[in-house]
Please model this.
Amino acid sequence: MARGAIVYATVIDPGITLAVTENSTLSPTAIGILSGVAASLCWATAFTAAKHGIAHGMTPADLALHRFIWPGLILLPFLARQGLSDLGGVGWGRGFTLMLLAGPLQAFLAYFGFTIVPLGHGTVIQPATATVMGAVLSALILGEHLSATRIAGMVIILIGLGLFGAEALTTIGTHGAWGDLLFVGAGTLWALFSVALRRWSVNGMHALAVVSVLSVLIVAPLHGLFFGYQAMIAAGLTENLIQAVVQGLIGGALPIYLYARSVSVLGSGRASMFIALVPVFSVILGILVIGEIPTAMRLVGLAIVVFGFRFALKP
Model:
């Protein structure tokens, strides 16, 4: 084998493992780190693009449609090979549950939150809530042990989130707090989704295929009936292309693949640390792309939350 060649074992179907050889001068650890950083940047880009779409007249429902319809159409042949009769072994009951937890409803809550509060709120509150609720629900449902270090990290995160709530109340008003609660709801749904994946032993890409395909088959037809396409048309072709690429690919399948690759090299504990980069990248992109300058209170809250991630995500 050539020097610098790295072999990855990739599970394509249950019982079928494909060995992928990749020539690289980078070490496996470096590739795992770069994959984790890139996944975080993808998620931050999707958050920023969503706020950009809202500012250009797109509705939360339109963004949710872009988020799932394109991956659903692309992954439909993959899921068909797995077997549509039982959604590749997941089952229709569990498939519907996964779609309710991580499908258009979860995306709609997050996108609607961006119509009320700044980008910096959603990009911190949603992943932070997912982390805290994921740990609590894993302990309650899966029986996982919560160490004192993780509990301390969760408490620190909650203190940081409290600053975001205080800023929303003082600068936006009570409806700002409701906007923050939408991100709490979206983060909680994602935590439930994560617990369901682990309890049912469903891998991330398979879950993405199930959620996206069901969204195409069920939710997409309802979009025209309840929301219409006027806002999408008025936003123009360029904005729709941006959202199709960013929400459907950069914020969908790509980061899941990159994050899974990071986990395979570094392990779930070390790879989970990259989630803390999502709000940091989002703040930077918010300044560069949409000109959103964070307040001092928001920056302090961000620093506290990121510090809390350091302990809450320890295995």
